[in-house]
Amino acid sequence: MTNNNSAGLLAGKVVLITGASRGIGEAAARLFAEEGASVVLAARGTDALDAVVGEIRAGGGTADAISVDLGDRDSVRAAVARVEELHGRLDGAFNNGATIQQPGPIDQTSDEDVDRQFEVNFRGHWTAMTAEAALMRRSGGGAIVNTSSIGSRRANPVLPAYGAMKRALNSITESAAVTWAPEGIRVNGITPGGTATAMIDAWEAATPGIVEQLAKSVPMGRMAEPREVAEVAAWLLSDRASMVTGAIVPVDGGAGA
Hints:
Blueprint: E1 14-18, H1 23-34, E2 38-43, H2 47-58, E3 63-67, H3 73-87, E4 92-95, H4 111-136, E5 142-147, H5 160-180, E6 185-192, H6 198-206, H7 210-216, H8 226-237, E7 248-251
């Protein structure tokens, strides 16, 4: 890995990535560093981030690991404050962290699952976005990308609480885009379909056969690799997407078409 890319897509930018310990977030950490960003990787525990940070630094890049619990508003705000301590500014944020619910129909979804989905997948992003925007506007703007889900675009009978909170995330993504556009802060979302991550592995364990079912539902005939999703986020965070805000971009191989 070579990270000292002064001509990369994200060259010179400071980017925060939540949910960076695995899956799409881990892929984004490596990709954004390759594209020249100074990355701050956040997850509930930093142990899983240390290897990624070490690899990026060994390649000449700049990376740090910080702890964040998206279900705890104070923890989210402290994480953004730590970015300011490290770099003095924030140019981009990839709000990718999430939690999955226990699969099952709406009338079998527990109150505890609904509450956890709200705390992490909706309120956690709300808190992160407002804190990130406050830091970004001090240096003239920035870009935010939120990871939603293909399940936010249609009925989601197997993951109803998850789908509901992701649909709500789409709404606040669009609202924030309109609200903060005059301040030079762009806000977009991505809606991945089936992606080969540990979250999908957990779903397969709970619902055997779901991976095969998901792959068959994709016109391209396969699930996405995490890096393929991260590539879209990288572009949206870059100056090449300077006129794109309020977009919810599908990254699903045509499954939502």
